[in-house]
Specification:
Blueprint lengths: L1 H7 L5 H10 L2 E6 L7 E5 L5 E6 L4 H21 L8 H11 L13 H7 L11 H8 L8 E2 L8 E3 L5 E8 L2 E6 L5 E4 L4 E4 L1
Parallel strand pairs: 1-3
Antiparallel strand pairs: 2-3, 4-9, 5-6, 5-9, 6-7, 7-8
Length: 197
Amino acid sequence: MLKILGKYIPQASIASVFQLITVHNIHLKIVNERVTRHGDYRKMSNGQHQITVNSNLNNFRFLITLIHEIAHLIAFKKYGNSIKPHGIEWKRTFQQLMLPYLRPEIFPNNLLPFLAIHFKNPKASSDTDTNLSLALKEYDAPNDKNYVFEIPLGSRFRIYNGKIFKRGQRRVKRFECIEITTGKVYLFNPNAEVELL
């Protein structure tokens, strides 16, 4: 397991992450990319805790995602199953778990300020934190995707499922985009990755 973790998370975090996995009896599955999520936590019918994380994430996003999912497990154990999945109990648990990792031996100095801001009030997904998402993207393998905010007004783009949209105006935090085939208006996060047509 230590060798496997070494392929996916920063070296300085391996020992403590391995300890969390062992102490909480976690079955970690590293899976192919899922467009709608980076990871998930599930308590299996046999009582085992399963966490899945996408294999295509960079080391820093993988670590954040893994700790995010471990926070679900610990929050449910501590507070019960009736808590909100991303409620205050989970936020506090996630903050406490991440704190030991927020140091330059694990994260590059340019990421630490974005992480410090994010973990004051962590969101359900690091992708909804535009500044952190952009900072983390610097460590992704190059791809041909653009963020919605980079798409020129009125230009067309394609999303992961093949649907084509035309970018509209910004509404407070999100962008109005019209699906070409139906004419329906959808709101996109600025940092949603799309393919410019």
